[in-house]
Design goal:
three-stranded antiparallel β-sheet, Arc Repressor Mutant, subunit A, elongated, 8 strands
Length: 186
C-alpha cells in the first residue's frame, strides 16, 4: 500500500509578547517540525506586528507530507490557520487507509474533548474556591470594623461596582449585615 504524497501551503500564526519572543518561538517551532522529519520546502516569516497590547506574526510554509496521515498529524499538533493543498490534484485512499485516518481523527478529537472537559472542571473548582476566599476576605474585614463599599473596595483592591454583588450575597445569607451604608459582622 503506497501512501500518496501531499504538498500543501500552510500558515502558522502566533500571538503574544514580547515581540522578539513570539518571532523566536515560531522559528523554533518550525525547526522542531523539521527535526521531527517534516519536509519543509519553503518557509517565509513575517515580522511581528502590534495587535492591541500583544504582537502577532506568521510563517507561510510549503510542506511535502508523505501521507494524508502526516498532514492530519501536523494539523492537530501545529494548528495552522490555513492549509491549501497544492498537489496532487486528486487523492486516492484505500478504504482501510481512510478508515484508519478517520479513526485517528476521531481519537484526537475525543482526546481534545476530554482535555477541555477536564480543564473546565478544574476551572469550576478554582472559581468556587476563589469566590469562597473572596467571601472570607470580606467577612474578615467586616469582623474588624464596619466598612462602606468604598472602604472594602480600597482594602480588597476590587472596584465597588464589582464588589457589591459579593457583599450583598453575604448580607442575604446572613453572614454579614448592612447598617446604613456600612457592612459589619453578622
Amino acid at each position: 500500500m503506497e501512501q500518496q504524497a501531499i504538498t500543501a501551503r500552510c500558515i502558522l500564526d502566533i500571538l503574544g509578547a514580547p515581540k522578539e519572543h513570539i518571532e523566536k518561538a515560531l522559528k523554533d517551532h518550525v525547526e522542531k517540525l523539521k527535526k521531527e522529519g517534516l519536509n519543509v520546502v519553503i518557509e517565509k516569516y513575517e515580522p511581528a506586528q502590534p495587535q492591541d497590547k500583544l504582537f502577532t506574526t506568521f510563517a507561510e510554509l510549503q510542506i511535502e507530507f508523505k501521507s494524508a496521515q502526516e498532514l492530519l498529524d501536523f494539523c492537530f499538533d501545529s494548528l495552522p490557520s490555513s492549509v491549501e493543498i497544492i498537489s496532487p490534484e486528486r487523492i486516492t485512499l484505500e478504504m482501510q487507509n481512510l478508515t484508519a485516518l478517520l479513526n485517528d481523527f476521531q481519537a484526537k478529537l475525543h482526546h481534545a474533548d476530554m482535555m477541555l472537559k477536564g480543564i473546565q472542571a478544574q476551572k469550576e473548582v478554582l472559581d468556587r474556591n476563589a469566590i469562597n476566599i473572596f467571601h472570607n476576605f470580606i467577612k474578615f474585614a467586616c469582623l474588624t470594623k464596619p466598612h462602606s463599599i468604598d472602604e472594602l473596595s480600597n482594602l480588597l483592591g476590587v472596584q465597588p461596582k464589582e464588589l457589591m454583588p459579593f457583599a450583598e450575597h453575604l448580607v442575604r445569607k446572613g453572614i454579614i449585615k448592612k447598617e446604613g451604608d456600612k457592612y459589619t459582622h453578622g
